[in-house]
Amino acid sequence: MNERALPIVVAGHICLDIIPDIRVQPAVRSEFLVPGKLVDVGPAMLATGGAVSNTGLALHRLGLPVKLMGKVGDDLFGGAIVDLLSRHSPEIADGMIVAKGEQTSYTIVINPPGVDRIFLHCTGTNDTLTAQDFSGLSATGAKIFHFGYPPLMRAMYENDGEGLVRLLAGVKAEGMIASLDMAKPDPASPAGRADWRLILKRALPYVDLFLPSFEEILYMLNPNLYADMMERQGSEDLLPQVTSEILTSISDELLNMGVAIVGIKLGEYGLYVRTSPNPERLRAMNGWASSEETIVSWTGRELVAPCFQVRVAGTTGAGDCTIAGLLASFAQEEPIERALLAAVGVGACNAERADAVSGIRPWDEIQRRIEGGWEQRNVHPNVAAEFSKRSEDGLWER
Q1: How many CB atoms lie within 10 A of CB 133?
Q2: Which domains does the chain have, with CATH numbers?
Q3: Do 1 and 90 meet the contact criterion of CB atoms below 8 Å apart?
Q4: Phi-psi map region of 31: left, alpha, beta (phi>0 left; psi -120 to 50 alpha)
Q5: What pTM was computed for the model?
Q6: N- to C-terminal Cα separation, the chain
Q7: Phi, psi angles (nearest 5°) of residue 324
Q8: Stretch (H or E) spanning 255
Q9: If DSSP codes are grouped into helix, strand and coil, which group holds residue 174?
Q10: pLDDT digits (tens, 9 = 90+) for 28-45
């Protein structure tokens, strides 16, 4: 780990997950949640969830200097979140925002054997998070600000994203590098009916790294194509229909909106990254790179990094951890090739454990694993037709 790595703030959505240990296996789904029926369950596990927890704790486990800034209430659930975060490091939760008299966001995860999971979710303080809550941002000393899941925070997306724009503009005014992750809103919700193309057009001029998943950004930029692909696929898993043409078209539009680096998460197929062809846009990232060699490495590139082979125990938080690997590389001014391999490497480590972050290993250990010949999965077949494999590192480039 480079001791000069830039300090990072991870902010945005956070909640408390309450997960009862349900051992009974109903014969049919309708037999489980029946009015008046008592269902015997085991102890409940408490865990933190959301971008702040998943990406932030992954960065901490990698060894990066990181502060977490999510909003909780001054209730028992808020205290539980702060306590769980502080167990990782006494200082990591110093920047958490505690709102007097507000209800902390929580999710009850009902996960009986043999039945699809049911989520009971309270948005709570995530809906009231505003730019004003980050008045102490400069005191963190951070150089990179990563914000996650604005579609799940009402004050960020309402009024055509006015709150998100104000927040990101303030981040840039503080001289920080801005990174943004997304979440796919429920189409039937107010967030799902928001004009996300307009919101992004307003917000992305203040964003340096934009890191959505394929399904998220397709839904936001081209909802008609999203609906057509979902109808053809018969599910919301649209990754089998990814093509290099769609990726290039999406990244073209996002780069034209003002971002310097676009990263699109492709789930089991890895990570696609496209960067601005203008080196001045990269130099404008508030003093990020200390060498011209780094700028050249990241200018005008279009790459895909396939995932590494692992025995999958779970994928909760895999995208958030992939982002952590990319941000960790970026904070250390790694060349783009090493950054992409680190990103999918951290994501693969996540998948080796059922929870979101316990599989994440120290940075140097992951680098040794990559350099030791860690086997990669195949690239997406639709991407292979247009990209060329780089034999020296297993990346694909166009």
Answers
A1: 18
A2: 1-25+41-129 (3.40.1190.20)
A3: no
A4: alpha
A5: 0.95
A6: 30
A7: -60, -40
A8: helix 244-257
A9: coil
A10: 555 667 788 888 888 998
